[in-house]
Design goal:
Length: 251
């Protein structure tokens, strides 16, 4: 009986020592399992804390920077497109100026009108280079300006679109020559640099020159014809012309 009690006492003591091996707080024994659960909970709580206090603000900042970057890239692309558009407009402007220069080059000006008489006389004489002595020779008989200066076009004779934009200077011309010579002269007039219009074209058989008494005039080739027409040189109105036209009282 005494031996069994000692054995039970020893077993109870050992169990108490085993039970007291883990710390107890508020009646909870912190066994390895309990400690593992607590560490997991604390780790999860720490992860949540880092998520809401570190990761989420950083993610929001990243999103804001991404949006700002997209906005700035859009502005850069827009500026690039604007630069390309400006270059395109500049090129179109240069092309328009070049076309305007080419178009203006087709019209007459005061300088070309000053040499028009010489140009016509040269065109007429060029047909006499290979003409025989007794053949008909082309000749410029008349070159009479209708007015001393160019007059603005406002009569609709060239169309309403031209009124108030162009002016013209007219010259009455008469030439003598064969039909072939006359056609050649008119074609060469079309090739002159200034824009010229031929109006009131008339051709008649030219009178034969009187021969000297006792002599017979022998003419070789076709008979000459007399051709008269009005040559109109067109010129664009200058800014001074436009201002004077606008200031003039309307009729």
């Amino acid at each position: 009986m005494t031996l069994s009690q000692d054995i039970n006492f020893v077993e109870d003591g050992e169990s108490l020592e085993a039970a007291s091996a883990y710390p107890v707080v508020f009646g909870i024994s912190f066994t390895p399992k309990v400690i593992g659960i607590l560490v997991g909970v604390l780790g999860f709580a720490g992860a949540l804390y880092m998520l809401f206090n570190l990761v989420m603000p950083a993610w929001e900042t990243f999103g804001q920077n991404q949006a700002k970057q997209s906005e700035l890239q859009g502005q850069v692309d827009q500026k690039k497109a604007t630069i390309k558009q400006i270059d395109k407009v500049k090129q179109e402007l240069a092309d328009a100026k070049q076309q305007q220069t080419q178009v203006l080059g087709l019209f007459a000006n005061e300088k070309t009108l000053d040499t028009l008489l010489l140009d016509l006389n040269r065109l007429v004489e060029s047909n006499n280079a290979t003409v025989a002595i007794n053949a008909t020779r082309a000749e410029l008989r008349k070159f009479v300006p209708v007015s001393d200066k160019a007059e603005p076009i406002n009569d609709g004779s060239l169309g309403k679109q031209v009124d108030g934009k162009l002016k013209r200077r007219s010259v009455n011309v008469e030439i003598i020559g064969t039909y072939e010579q006359t056609q050649s002269i008119l074609r060469n007039i079309e090739r002159l640099q200034p824009l010229l219009i031929v109006k009131d074209y008339q051709s008649t058989l030219a009178p034969q020159p009187a021969s000297e008494p006792g002599k017979r005039l022998l003419r070789i080739g076709p008979a000459p014809i007399s051709t008269s027409f009005q040559l109109q040189a067109l010129m664009p109105l200058t800014p001074e012309d436009i201002a004077a036209l606008q200031a003039a009282p309307k009729k």
